[in-house]
Amino acid sequence: MDYMTELPPQSSQLIAFLQHALEQHSSGVIYRDLALALRQAIAEDVLAVGDGLPGERDLAEAIHLSRTSVRKAIDALVGDGVLIRRHGARTAVAERLQKPLSTLTSFSEDMRSRGIEPGMIWISREIGPASPAEIMALHLSVGARVCRLKRLRTGDGLPMAIEHAVVPADVLDDPAVVTGSLYDVLAERNRRPVRALQRLRAAIASPEDGRLLHLVVGAPLLIAERRCFTDDGMPVEFTRTTYCGERYDFLVELRTQAEQ
Fold first, then answer.
1. What's the Cα-to-Cα distance from 49 to each of 85, 243, 246, rounded to whole Å?
2. pTM here?
3. Which of 12, 104, 145, 200 pairs as cysteine with 169 (C-beta 3.0–4.6 A)?
């Protein structure tokens, strides 16, 4: 059977893309190469959110791989939240999280608003002297101390972002009290942020990023640096968050000057 002509046009386009990607890159581990090729297909809009994949047998025969390799590649992407299996339907591209940039919310609030259970895995937490960059960002005196919290943020157990938050030690002097949302802890101290300045930039995954976020090295990332202020105008948090680019869409509402 000629699968390039028998499959629907959309599937034929996907097969052609995967064949080309597999020819261009070979790590020696076939299922990982296929998983990378499928990620590239999603990143380049060959596969869109909600699009279904061909069945495992059809896909295996069309790209001349074993069904075992195809299944392992799909299982890996399902485990990373890139694909989703629906009962009685084909495996499909999972919906991306939409994060509005016009509202100041915590990671935990973002997740819960979407019906996703937030979680975290500690990478490091410490109290120490503020660096020059932290002194400038938080308007601190030389020699001031800060609380640094670095953690992997998860949603329903899947890695979503790497968050590195810095708070003045006179606001938070014990990192152990943060067991969930940092903003909940700051609210208890009447220091919850109400305003923020945020800068976004693109990046690619380093080996450490890839290990933590379950991504291949070089995968797209979005880094958000945010300075947060309390209602009296004092900076209370300086955070750098590394988001998994293939799981997030960032939304901004724009208005004309006449409407502002």
1. 13, 18, 11
2. 0.64
3. 145
User: HSE of 209 in the Cβ direction (CA atoms, 13 Å)?
Assistant: 21
For 145-169, the pLDDT digits (tens) are: 999 999 999 888 888 899 999 999 9
pLDDT of 32 over the 90 cut: no
Q: What is the DSSP string of 72-96?
A: HHHHHHHHTTSEE--TTS--EEPPP
**186, 200 contact by CB (below 8 A):** no
Crossing angle for the helix pair 56-63 and 9-24, to the nearest 10 degrees:
50
What does the block give as tokens for 111?
């997740």
Q: Which of 195, 194, 196, 219 is CA-nearest to residue 206?
A: 219
Tokens of 200: 């976004």
